[in-house]
Amino acid sequence: MPWLTLGPILEQTRRKGDPELQLLAASMLLDVAVHIPLEQRPQKRDLGLAMLTEDGERRGTVALDPHIWVARQLVDAAVANAGRPHYTEMRPRAIAWYRTVTAVLASGNNLADLEPHIRQSLRKFPDDAGVVFDAGTYAESFAAPMVQAAMFRREDSSRRTKPIESLRAGAILRQALLADAEKHYRRALDLDPAHTEAVVRLGRVLTMRGRSDAAVIELHRAVLMPASSVVRYFAFLFLGNALERANDPSGAAGAFREAATLFPDAQSPQLALSRLAAERGESRESHDTIERLLSRRTHADGSDPWWFYHRGRGRDVESIYREFVMNMRQMSVSSRAAERQP
Question: Rounded CA gap, 300 and 170, in Å?
Answer without folding.
Answer: 28
